[in-house]
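Hi R.,

As promised on Friday, here is the backbone we talked about, encoded as C-alpha cells. Could you run it through your design pipeline when you get a chance and send me back a sequence?
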C-alpha cells in the first residue's frame, strides 16, 4: 500500500505540473525525481494496479452476482398489482342483434407470493454457483501470480542489463588505462601502431556493447512501467541487487507438496470439479418431485372504497414425467463434463509437479554456474594482471597476451552476470512453481 501511494503521489505531481499552469506564464518544470523501486514494491504495485489483475477481480464480483441469483430462486417471490378498469362485456349470442353490458368499473389490489419449499435441483445449483465463486477467486490468484512472476523476471532483466552496463564501463576503464600505457610505449619506440589500433578497436567494441546494454535497461524499465500501469515517462531506479546464492532450499518433495496445496491452479481446478459434480447432481435432481407454495390476497370491488377481500392458496407438487429426452441429454452432457474436469485436474497436477522439478533443477544448475563463473573471473583477472605487468616490464612482451587477458576478463564478467541472472530468475521460477511468490524477497 505504501508503494502504491508513492506511485499515485508521483503521478499526481506529474499531472499537476502539466495542467496547473493555465492563466499565467509557465516556468520550466524541474526534472522528475527518479522513483526508487524495490522488488517487493514492484510486486505489491502489480497486484494493486495491473489491469489484468483488476479484470479478474471484477470476475469475482460477477460470480458473486451469480450466487445471489441462484439463492434468490429459493427465496420467496413477492409481487403486487393495483388495477382500476372500466369495461363492458358481451352478452347474448352471435347473430343479427348482438348485446353488450353497460360500462362498469372494477378495482383490484392484490399481493401474490410463491415459495419453493423443496427442490433438490435448485439447492444443488446454488451450491454449484458458490463453488464457481471459489473458482473465480482461484483464477484471480493465478493471474495475480502470473503477473507478479512477469514483474519479477522483468526486474531481474533490468538488474542484468544494469550489471552489463557496469561491466562494459569497467572494461572501458581498464582499456583506457592500457591505451595510455601503449601510447607511452609507442613514444618510446617499443609499441607499434598495430598494437594501438587493436586496443582502440576493443575499446570501440566495448562502447558499442555499453550502448546496447543501456537500451536493455530502458526496455526492462518500460516493461515494468507497462506491468505496473504507470506513465511511460516515469523515471525508475531499481534499488535491489542480485542475490549471490540461494540458501536453505528445502527437499524437492517438500516443495512439490507445498505447491499442490498452494498453487491456485490446483485449488481452482479441484473446486471446479466439485462445482461440476454439483451441477451434475442438480440436473439429475430434476427427476425428483418438487414442492411449491403459491398464494395471493387482495381487495376487489367496483371502487377502491367499496371492496371485498379475496384470497387464493395453493400447494403444488410438480412431478416430472417426460420431456422428450431433453433431461437425459443434459445429464449425459454434464457427466462428460465432470469426467473432462477430472482429467484436466490430473493434467494440471502433473504440470505443476513438472514445473517444480524443472525450477529446482534450474536453481541447482544456476548455483553451479555462479560458482564456476566466480572462479573463472578470478583466474581471468589474475591473467590480465600478470599480462599487464609483463607488458609494462618486459620490452619484448607480446601485445597479444594483453588483449587476450582483456578478452578473458570481459567474457568472465559477462558469464558471472549471466549466471547471477539465471540464479535469481530460478528463484522467481521456484517461487511461482511452489505458489509462494508473495514471500519472494
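Update: got your reply. Pasting your designed sequence below so it's all in one thread:
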Amino acid at each position: 500500500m505504501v508503494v502504491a501511494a508513492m506511485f499515485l503521489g508521483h503521478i499526481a505531481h506529474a499531472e499537476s505540473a502539466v495542467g496547473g499552469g493555465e492563466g499565467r506564464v509557465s516556468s520550466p518544470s524541474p526534472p522528475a525525481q527518479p522513483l526508487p523501486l524495490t522488488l517487493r514494491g514492484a510486486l505489491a504495485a502489480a497486484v494493486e494496479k495491473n489491469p489484468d489483475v483488476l479484470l479478474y477481480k471484477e470476475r469475482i464480483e460477477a460470480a458473486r452476482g451469480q450466487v445471489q441469483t441462484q439463492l434468490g430462486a429459493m427465496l420467496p417471490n413477492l409481487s403486487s398489482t393495483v388495477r382500476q378498469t372500466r369495461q363492458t362485456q358481451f352478452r347474448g349470442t352471435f347473430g343479427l342483434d348482438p348485446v353488450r353490458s353497460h360500462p362498469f368499473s372494477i378495482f383490484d389490489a392484490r399481493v401474490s407470493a410463491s415459495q419453493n419449499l423443496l427442490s433438490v435441483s435448485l439447492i444443488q445449483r446454488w451450491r454449484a454457483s458458490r463453488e464457481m465463486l471459489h473458482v473465480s477467486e482461484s483464477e484471480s490468484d493465478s493471474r495475480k501470480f502470473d503477473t507478479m512472476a512477469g514483474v519479477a523476471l522483468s526486474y531481474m532483466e533490468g538488474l542484468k542489463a544494469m550489471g552489463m552496463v557496469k561491466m562494459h564501463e569497467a572494461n572501458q576503464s581498464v582499456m583506457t588505462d592500457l591505451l595510455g600505457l601503449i601510447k607511452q610505449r609507442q613514444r618510446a619506440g617499443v609499441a607499434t601502431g598495430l598494437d594501438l589500433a587493436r586496443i582502440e578497436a576493443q575499446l570501440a567494441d566495448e562502447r558499442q556493447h555499453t550502448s546496447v546494454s543501456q537500451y536493455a535497461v530502458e526496455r526492462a524499465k518500460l516493461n515494468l512501467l507497462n506491468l505496473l500501469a504507470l506513465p511511460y515517462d516515469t523515471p525508475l531506479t531499481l534499488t535491489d541487487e542480485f542475490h549471490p546464492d540461494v540458501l536453505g532450499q528445502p527437499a524437492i518433495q517438500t516443495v512439490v507438496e507445498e505447491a499442490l496445496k498452494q498453487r491456485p491452479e490446483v485449488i481452482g481446478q479441484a473446486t471446479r470439479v466439485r462445482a461440476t459434480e454439483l451441477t451434475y447432481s442438480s440436473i439429475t435432481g430434476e427427476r425428483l418431485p418438487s414442492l411449491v407454495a403459491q398464494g395471493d390476497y387482495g381487495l376487489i370491488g367496483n371502487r377502491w372504497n367499496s371492496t371485498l377481500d379475496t384470497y387464493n392458496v395453493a400447494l403444488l407438487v410438480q412431478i416430472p414425467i417426460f420431456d422428450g429426452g431433453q433431461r437425459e441429454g443434459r445429464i449425459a452432457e454434464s457427466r462428460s463434463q465432470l469426467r473432462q474436469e477430472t482429467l484436466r485436474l490430473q493434467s494440471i497436477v502433473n504440470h505443476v509437479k513438472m514445473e517444480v522439478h524443472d525450477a529446482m533443477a534450474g536453481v541447482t544448475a544456476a548455483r553451479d554456474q555462479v560458482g564456476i563463473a566466480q572462479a573463472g573471473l578470478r583466474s581471468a583477472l589474475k591473467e590480465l594482471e600478470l599480462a599487464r605487468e609483463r607488458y609494462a616490464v618486459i620490452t619484448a612482451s607480446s601485445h597479444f597476451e594483453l588483449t587476450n587477458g582483456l578478452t578473458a576478463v570481459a567474457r568472465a564478467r559477462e558469464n558471472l552476470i549471466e549466471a547471477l541472472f539465471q540464479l535469481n530468475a530460478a528463484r522467481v521460477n521456484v517461487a511461482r512453481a511452489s505458489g509462494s511468490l508473495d514471500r519472494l524477497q
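One thing I noticed while checking it: The domain at 42-76+131-285+328-439 is CATH 1.20.1600.10 (Outer membrane efflux proteins (OEP)).

Thanks again,
M.
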